[in-house]
Design a protein that fits this description.
With 331 residues, this protein is of the alpha/beta class. The protein has a domain at 13-50 and 143-330: Purple Acid Phosphatase, chain A, domain 2 (4-Layer Sandwich), CATH 3.60.21.10. It has seven helices and 22 strands.
Length: 331
């Protein structure tokens, strides 16, 4: 007599997504540790991974230092104070360089030298991040996939493309296998912004880039769209409208209320509506933490508070082309 047994259910995949870390050392360390803390299989770090500022620390006589942070001159007289100042810069995502007065004045007069130094320290931080991920995730079987964003200089991003890694993988402009049944396609460019960041392209060009990528996806119902730019008018892209005639730009106020609008991409939304991926992972608009359904697609922007050292993220569980659950996290 034949014996019938229940087919063993596949194990769901657990993914942790965070984005827009902007060089923050503390936030990145929390991100890498989230793999163990949340017991996930996959870590995905969305774009805008590099910092925005390089802060010179001037070495003075008698081993004293000074540095200017957010308009305030900090006088530093002990090694402990220096370490604390450097740690504060790291949490904010800023870079630093210790130099004497003569070096500072020479650098201030040479914009090209400033750019070279900025790229150098930014690349070094990303290289250190690769090393940290390889160290912390070694032997765990967990994989960390990373893309750039519109704020990230292409030259600096070469630091994350390293051969022979076991846990940390740059995945932009590639279709990668995240588990046996699911793939992920990643695009880090954004539509034009008022800040004229390094990797902006017209919305139509972004759409063409996406369409070229998805032709290589074997099953779009089992894929993840990891696109830095969120879909327009989706609640993932809501931000204040700014008056750019002011310096610095100010939010537009009407009737005592800040005017809000959807700053996302029409092409990203069109691609999601057309191809209906299982999951959309997005960032770019820090203040617009949200989850939206576009057809069958679950689209997520966990938001970002990197400058406070706060890791905002989203824990997602999926199986057989379907999102079983998600939970926003903050820590």
């Amino acid at each position: 007599m034949p014996i019938f047994t229940k087919k063993e259910r596949k194990k769901a995949t657990r993914l942790y997504f965070a984005t827009d870390l902007h060089g923050s050392e503390r936030t990145y360390r929390k991100f890498i540790n989230a793999g163990k803390f949340y017991d996930v299989d996959i870590l995905v770090m969305g774009g805008d991974i590099t910092g925005k500022l390089l802060i010179p620390i001037i070495k003075e006589k008698n081993d004293h230092y000074r540095g200017t942070l957010q308009g305030r001159v900090e006088e530093i007289s002990t090694q402990k104070e220096l370490d604390e100042f450097i740690n504060r810069l790291g949490t904010l995502g800023f870079y630093h360089k210790i130099m004497d007065e003569a070096e500072f004045h020479a650098l201030s007069a040479d914009k090209n030298a400033v750019d070279v130094l900025f790229h150098q320290v930014a690349r070094q931080r990303l290289s250190d991040w690769v090393d940290l991920a390889e160290e912390r995730l070694a032997g765990t079987g967990k994989k960390c996939f990373v893309t750039g964003g519109n704020d990230d200089d292409p030259e600096v991003l070469t630091a994350i493309r390293r051969e022979g890694t076991h846990s940390f993988f740059a995945c932009e402009n590639e279709v990668i296998q995240v588990d046996e049944d699911h793939t992920m396609v990643s695009v880090g460019y954004s539509t034009p912004t008022p800040w004229k960041t390094p990797r902006e392209i017209p919305d139509e060009d972004l759409g063409e880039m996406i369409e070229k990528m998805v032709t290589h996806v074997p099953d779009l119902s089992h894929t993840i769209f990891n696109f830095h730019d969120p879909p327009v008018d989706s609640s993932l892209d809501t931000c204040p409208m700014l008056d750019w005639s002011k310096d610095p730009p100010e939010p537009i106020i009407q009737g005592g209320q800040t005017v809000l609008y959807g700053a996302g991409s029409k092409s990203v939304r069109k691609a999601i509506e057309k191809h209906q991926p299982m999951l959309g992972l997005h960032g770019h608009i820090h203040e617009s933490q949200s989850v939206a359904r576009i057809g069958r697609s679950v689209c997520i922007n966990p938001g970002s508070e990197y400058g406070e050292g706060i890791l905002r993220g989203c824990l997602v569980t999926f199986i057989d082309g379907k999102v079983e659950g998600y939970q926003m996290t903050s820590g």
